[in-house]
Each structure stands twice: as C-alpha cells, then as structure tokens.
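re: ur question from the group chat, yeah i did fold both. here u go
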Amino acid sequence: MNERRDESVNEAYCGTPAASPEKAAGPPYAECVLCRKPTEYAESVKGITLCPVCAWQEAQRTACSG
C-alpha cells in the first residue's frame, strides 16, 4: 500500500512543467527576471520570463534526480 502512495507522490513531484509562452517575432523583448538580459519572449508575456541561459540553469537545479 505504501508503494502506491509513493508512486503518486513521485508523479506529482516529477511532473512536466506547464508549456512556455510563444516566442516573440521581434523586439521589444521581456527582461529575464534573474539576470535582466533580453529573453525570447515579448514584453507582453505575463509571469516569470527567463533568458535561455537562466532557464537552462533553473531546469538543472529543479531536475528530478529519481
């Protein structure tokens, strides 16, 4: 019975992230919230925007090692 509960916890913890917004066709670009460099997204995108480098580093930090 504990195995079943552990599986559901792992699925919730290691689930795939939500889809990212569409990339912008051109300037103006939103600033990265971590390093303030331009991102691939338009300024009108709501929420946290990360540049490709910070997005990769964030994915490394939050990757499921299980």
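okk and heres the other one u asked abt
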Amino acid sequence: MITKMAEDEFAASGLSPTSAFLLMAVFEKEGISQKELGEILHLQPSTVTRLIEKLIIKGLITNRVDGRLSLIYATDKGKALEEPINECWNSLRSRYAALLGEKEGDELSLYLYKVSDRIENIE
C-alpha cells in the first residue's frame, strides 16, 4: 500500500519513486558516483545501472567516466524536474500524515529508512 501511494504521487513527475529518488541524490551532489547512488538507494549495482540507463535515454542525466568511476550529472531537462519531484515528495508526506498523523507519518519514513539500512547491512 505504501509503495502504491508513492507510485501514485510520483506519477505526476513521469518517474517511478526510485528514479525520482535517484535524481534527488544527483541534485544534492552533481558528479555523484554510481557506487554512492547504490549505497544511498540501497540497491544492487546492476539495478542502479538499469535506472541510470533509463534516465539517460529520457535525457534527464548524463554519465561521465573518470578513470574507474562512473559519475552522474543532471541535464537541464533533469534539473527542470527538481521542483516537481519535491512537490511529489511533499504530497506523499501529506498523504502519510493524513492517514497516520504528521508525527507518525514522519516516524514511518524514518523507520522504513532504518529497516532498509539494516537489511542492506545483513551479511
């Protein structure tokens, strides 16, 4: 249900929630490495590669190779989505708050992040 809510909200941006979160990370750090994106998003390298390829095809990001690193930059077209993506995120937070209460909605977001981090670090 939470995933469905996120998909509904981010549909307005034309992106999946995961693609939108990837772009948000690029907005925060232009020239971010593919490895860093995987760590932030808690995704396997192959999944990050597929997401990046889709966003390159859409003209939202570019990929530059620097030695062994693959660095990701937002294009002007991608940068134009920063505000719409933020609006989608705020709308999603509002929906969580309407269902759960504002404090509980924020706690849910934090809890989901912590759970993802724990699962990622299980060896």
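fwiw on the second one: Helices lie at 2-10, 17-28, 34-41, 45-57, 76-79, 82-100, 102-120. The mean pLDDT is 88. idk if thats what u expected
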